[in-house]
Amino acid sequence: MSRTADHAQQIDRLSSAPAAEPSPFAAFGMPGLGAPSPAPDPQPILELTGQEREDELDSLTDWVDDFLLPTYGAEVTTAAPWCLRWQEHDDVVAWLHALWLSYQQHREPDAGLAGMLVWHRDCLLHAMAAVRAPGGPLSACMTSPDRPAHRLLASPPSSARTTSARSGKDEEPEDDGSESVT
Questions:
Q1: Do the Cβ atoms of 115 and 177 come closer than 8 Å?
Q2: Which of 41, 111, 143, 171 could be a cystine partner for 78, CB 3.0 to 4.6 Å?
Q3: Distance of alpha carbon 93 from alpha carbon 89, whole angstroms
Q4: What is the tens place of the pLDDT at every residue in 113-155?
Q5: Are the C-beta atoms of 81 and 132 separated by less than 8 Å?
Q6: Domain ranges of the chain
């Protein structure tokens, strides 16, 4: 029995993560040589509120205005619209914030030598195509630099199920004359 207990303790010790030992250089205050500090959990910008959201939007705006647009913001055309008030388009803010977070991740050394290539291929191209698509969220805004414009497009209405749940009665969807196939 004693031997079995010893084996169980040995298995537990071997299967657990090793205890983090303090760096011998931590006392010297040398950056990067102590235990790494945990990275903050990024939160989608649309889930932030108040001053936290404003601060994040200010930082995002700086990145978009100082880096993204000068580098990757091709000419404004009907095929690639833009909006000088893009911060008022929640969907555009969400796309650009996700792009910015992924940029920060892919430029870190642990992303490897191909980190930025992966960002270009997997993140930048897709996000910019979605944001600046001719039928995308900015399609009612500026399509020519000579004609600045801004217009928020209306969102689709709530589904019939949601509408009936809010009103508290079972409503049948209106018959539009089309036949459904089951």
A1: no
A2: 143
A3: 6
A4: 999 999 999 999 999 999 999 999 999 999 888 888 888 888 8
A5: yes
A6: 50-131
